[in-house]
Amino acid sequence: MIAVSAGMRADVLRSYPAVDPDRVHVVHNGIDTALWSRRERPDAVRALGVDPDKRSVVFVGRITRQKGLPYFLRAVAQAPPDVQVVLCAGAPDTAEIMQEVTGLVGGLQQHRDGVVWIDRMLDREDVVALLSSATAFACPSVYEPLGIVNLEAMACETAVVGTATGGIPEVVDDGVTGRLVPIEQVQDGTGTPVDPDRYVADLAAALIETVEDVDRARAWGLAGRRRAVEEFAWTTVAERTLDVYRAALQA
């Protein structure tokens, strides 16, 4: 059995206690680091309603509880007023969370400029352009088996602020490629924070720390690109997968 992260391996063994731990291996997911690479297209970014010359924090993901978007919207309200909030968010899984997100976005737009919500599916080149112009990428998920979106942002040389849960800590190197936000979670399978207000405060602090020092955020982004290429490129992932099969054949 191959798990895409050590976090997922632990979940597999917890869910299936009869499985022999020696037969569950970790091979991280990967990305095409040629397709996902920094490409600045300021005109394309402006066409999407974002100013590429100003600081921005970008979220990309489905509108689900797992992705933690409501926590992000509460946290980013504390960011400096000139920081743009860019949401590439659609496909809500319930009417309830859509209503909640709509209300939070509306509240943000009443108190700050530069809140951009793109609710349609963008092509990859437009997502790359947004990531390449961003100061930070936010991943407020309360669970991710690995978090490929973080790899995509890192490959575009964007600093990542992500929750320290699931496989995210295996991707984001805290203080090197971005920031990990601590979280204590309810053990009922939902990933809900035990103290939501504390998590929102910690997420806000990490986002503010990242956008306040643009030069450091840029350095984190460059380090993220190196990490994505060295550890998560498809060639590396393919070789590690082959190693698992070779070991199985030898056994």
TrEMBL record:
InterPro entries: M1P_synthase (IPR011875). It holds the Pfam family Glyco_trans_1_4. PANTHER family: ALPHA-MALTOSE-1-PHOSPHATE SYNTHASE (PTHR12526:SF590), GLYCOSYLTRANSFERASE (PTHR12526). This is Glycosyl transferase family 1 domain-containing protein. The lineage of its organism: Bacteria, Bacillati, Actinomycetota, Actinomycetes, Kineosporiales.
